[in-house]
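Following up on my earlier message about glutathione. Here are the inputs again, as you asked, copied directly from the submission form:
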Amino acid sequence: MPADLHLIIANKAYSSWSMRPWLALKANGVAFRETVIALDLPDTAGKIKAYSAAGKVPVLQHGDITVWESLAILDYLAETFPDKAWWPSDRQARATARSVATEMHGGFSSLRQAMPMNVRKVFPASAPTDAVAADIARITAIWRECRETFGRGGPFLFGAFSNADAMYGPVVTRFKTYSVALDPVSQAYSDAVLNHPAMREWCISAAGEPWIITKYENR
Ligand SMILES: N[C@@H](CCC(=O)N[C@@H](CS)C(=O)NCC(=O)O)C(=O)O
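Thanks, got it. Here's what our run produced:
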């Protein structure tokens, strides 16, 4: 197996898709090298294309293997490091974890558009559109259901931190950034994610980044 894992990501302040595999790697204690490509600059597209023809980050390089798309990276890691707890071990929990992770990967576009990630900011609450409110309702229903059914072994969706939590990490930070009022179960889950050492490390690193993208800095 090739040794060097190299994760190519974008600004930690703003890049929600980058956060996902980064959190999973850190949470599982897997060492990796990272390259950050700043978004929204004249050379951004060229720099990303040097790693992936898809023109998006995150990208994982592992020896001569390249994986892109956040969810594909999480699955590649689970397959490559089977001794780590990427997905829940219980079959039913794992099936649900994959389902809710994929629902996140392919959905919630109204929320993502209305509330771009900015882990450095907290904005005052404002009334969501019906479409955003529907996304928030579905996400928090998922969180309550997972916590209730599978969450006994710890504070995360399936007890211990898993790839499902990595996928919802940027949703948790968005709810904080946009001061979204949550039910008690969802708030407790969010607090657990925000207090995870990997998330803390990501946010500290984001706070030290020099780049500012104005369109994400104002409501
Ligand atoms: N479906 C992709 C989405 C990746 C994505 O949209 N990445 C953004 C950064 S968060 C990007 O690379 N944007 C490049 C650009 O805007 O130039 C995934 O899951 O990895």
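One observation from looking it over: The radius of gyration is 17 Å. Hope that helps, and feel free to reply on this thread.
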